[in-house]
Design goal:
The chain is mostly loops. It has one helix and two strands, in the order ββα. The protein is elongated, with a radius of gyration of 21 Å.
């Protein structure tokens, strides 16, 4: 399930200046055409563009991400609706143990 309303909002003048690309900033000028929602100008983010509540905060695979710090955390994960993301502070050896245990429990690991 993807959100049909989801857009990439570009900053004003991002076409002219490469350094502005990928960084949204709200226009604040008095005569700014984007801020005034003038027809034909770039779109501004509004509350109507948000994803449906069921789709919010989900991984693109459709699973909810659960942060895992050790092997014991895997037992609390529902493999049908949740996926494990191993914390960046976990060591290499512990990470291998978590991945091995996740395969046994059939839990998807997002960053093996």
């Amino acid at each position: 399930m993807t959100n049909p309303k989801k857009r990439k909002f570009t900053r004003q003048s991002a076409v002219a200046y490469k350094r502005l690309a990928g960084r949204w900033r709200k226009p604040r000028g008095g005569h700014n055409k984007v801020r005034q929602f003038e027809k034909g100008k770039i779109k501004m983010p509004k509350i109507g563009y948000s994803a449906p509540k069921l789709l919010r905060f989900l991984h693109p695979s459709g699973l909810k991400e659960v942060l895992v710090f050790n092997v014991n955390n895997l037992s609390r994960i529902n493999p049908k609706t949740e996926a494990a993301r191993i914390s960046h502070s976990v060591s290499k050896r512990k990470k291998q143990e978590i991945v091995k245990k996740a395969e046994e429990l059939k839990v998807k690991v997002l960053n093996p």
